[in-house]
Amino acid sequence: MFLVKLGGSVITDKGRLRTFKDEACRRLASEMQGRDGSLIVVHGAGSYGHVLAKEHRLDEGFSDESQLHPVAIVQRDVRELNTRVLEALIDSGVRGVSIPPAASATFDGSAVKVFDPSLFQKMIGLGLVPVTFGDVVPDESLRFSICSGDLMMAELARHFKPRLVVFCADVDGVFTGDPKTDHGAELIHELGRETLDNLRRTESLNADVTGSIYGKLDRMLDIASHCEKCIILNGDVPGRLKKALEGESVPSTAVLPG
Ligand code: IP8
User: Fold this and answer.
1) List of residues 6+ apart from 142 with CB closer than 8 A
2) Which residues contact 163 (CB under 8 A, 6 or more apart)?
3) For the residues 90-94, what does the mean pLDDT come to?
4) Using a 6 Å cutoff on CB, does residue 136 contact ligand 1?
5) Closest ligand 1 atom to 5 CA
6) φ/ψ bin of 171: left (φ > 0), alpha (ψ from -120 to 50), beta (otherwise)
7) How far is the CA of 213 from the centre of ligand 1 (A)?
8) Quick one: pLDDT band at residue 210, thresholds 50, 70, 90?
9) 2-255 maps to which CATH number?
């Protein structure tokens, strides 16, 4: 089983509301060909989710009625993104089917309360490719909350114990600094708990409503303990995802269990 996350920064332009990177998404879809029935895809929300979620503080849950219109808009927008991803997959011959997070899980305090993998299991059993995504979801204590695609990655890894988990980012992996601003930053080939704790905390890496890169890496360490291998690679570089799925080694950061 393969579990692949298409990061929001790879499939959308995160700085411009609702901007889909069609070419990149179609290429990544074609790199996943031939794995129907043994692949689950998760995608981030990018600029279809984070911009409005941040503006209206949807990640903090319900505070007043004025948030409900944006809740509806973000729900619609991430479904639109999901449809674009499904189109890219289907056009590449990958039989993607949509499973929104709330169809398989309940949420409480921005965490998964109960996860039911049966829908994923049935689709995989049929030889299809379940596709889930970051979304606004009903939440028992917050009334609504944001479910990050990473939260679904963790549940799916726990239940399906994949051979390989791949996070497609817009950089080669985790660096010692911000590779976009610090040219001396070096790629970390293996990231464990100790390396993460020692990492320099750079401001520019903190952006999302679903937490800083450090929170995400924390979750990845947990995911790594439920699979044979967990890597972060550059989804913007053609061929890297395909090679990684074929078992070849590519520039990346391997996340160690912890
Ligand atoms: O991009 C966030 O999901 P992520 C979901 O996977 C929303 O963190 C709606 C902002």
Assistant:
1) 60, 61, 62, 109, 110
2) 1, 2, 227, 228, 229
3) 98
4) yes
5) 6
6) beta
7) 13
8) confident
9) 3.40.1160.10
User: Residue 170: CB within 6 Å of ligand 1?
Assistant: no
Q: Identify whether the C-beta of residue 162 lies closer than 8 Å to the C-beta of residue 229.
A: no
Residue 226 clears pLDDT 60, i.e. is over it:
yes
Name the band, by pLDDT with cuts 50, 70 and 90, for residue 206. very low
**CA–centroid distance, residue 184 to ligand 1 (Å):** 30
Please state the pTM of the whole predicted model: 0.96
For the cut 70, the answer to whether the pLDDT of residue 230 exceeds it is yes
Ligand 1: atom nearest CA of 208 is 8
Q: Is 44 in the pocket of ligand 1 (CB under 6 A)?
A: yes
Strands (E), 173-219: 190-191
Cα distances (Å, whole numbers) of residue 76 to 31, 52, 242: 28, 12, 31
Q: Which atom of ligand 1 is nearest to the CA of 150?
A: 6
Domain ranges of the chain: 2-255
**Does ligand 1 come within 6 angstroms of the Cβ of 81?**
no
